[in-house]
Amino acid sequence: MMDKLYSALVIFAGSVLLGFAFNMLLLPHEILSGGITGIAMIFSLMTPVNAGIWLFVLNIPILIIGWMKLGKMFIFNSIYSVVVTSVSMLYIPVMKVTEDALLSSVFGGVLVGVGVGFIIRSYGSTGGFDVVGLLLTMKRDIPLGFLVFVLNSLVVFVSGFIFTWELAMYTMASIYITGLVVDRIHTRHIKLGLMVVTNKGEAVKKQLLENLYRGITVTDGEGAYSGNKVKVLYSVISRYELAYVRPLIKAVDPDAFVSISETMEVMGNFRKDENFKKTPEMNGQL
Questions:
Q1: What is the pLDDT of residues 134-150, one digit of tens each?
Q2: Which of residues 160, 185, 210 is at a domain's end?
Q3: pTM score, two decimals?
């Protein structure tokens, strides 16, 4: 219950931050965000209808697709985020914090990236291309921020034709910065190689198998200096899982030697969803 409340608060704060960034930094300079939000901004600049209303309307078909592919809880959180963002854009005034368009594009991109990153980490999205990007990252280990940046580049060309190419370049800079920030916060695509050297191999293995839901390769080892027989456990985990792997190992064997390194590429049956049920052959490791 507390986890759900915490996630709801994070999504709320992230969505309000998006509304602030859009209305106070980007829209006043006609600098757009990416994807559906950018399209909503274009419509709002060309019509008297507020961007928040356009944002909600344009997200409806995408959220319906996400409901079928990504699960009810995810889409519920996404709808919650879209509604909060839309309402915040209705009540936060559209005004310039600074007259410098470059500063607005940079800091607007950073704030949007922070908001989107934490919303996604809380199992939600801002709708639009975030949903499309997450559907694609389920199939491929592509950084989400980079993928969304590629998809959102279409908005840049549209804004260039409708407004000016100078503003389009500001929009590109803002979207690029947003993508970088999202990838710093949403690190699910990063895989880590975990190696544990311990003299309590069976106990450590049991704890990891019960809580980690990853396959583990176990080999025999020997300390070169002490000559003691040890077990060497190896697995590949996601960046998210590292937070609860550390205390698990420490609780069983505080003296275990643990090596964690970033993995460039993973081949084989690596499960990308951390919330799957265990199978007899997990991750291709027995």
A1: 666 666 656 656 666 67
A2: 185
A3: 0.64
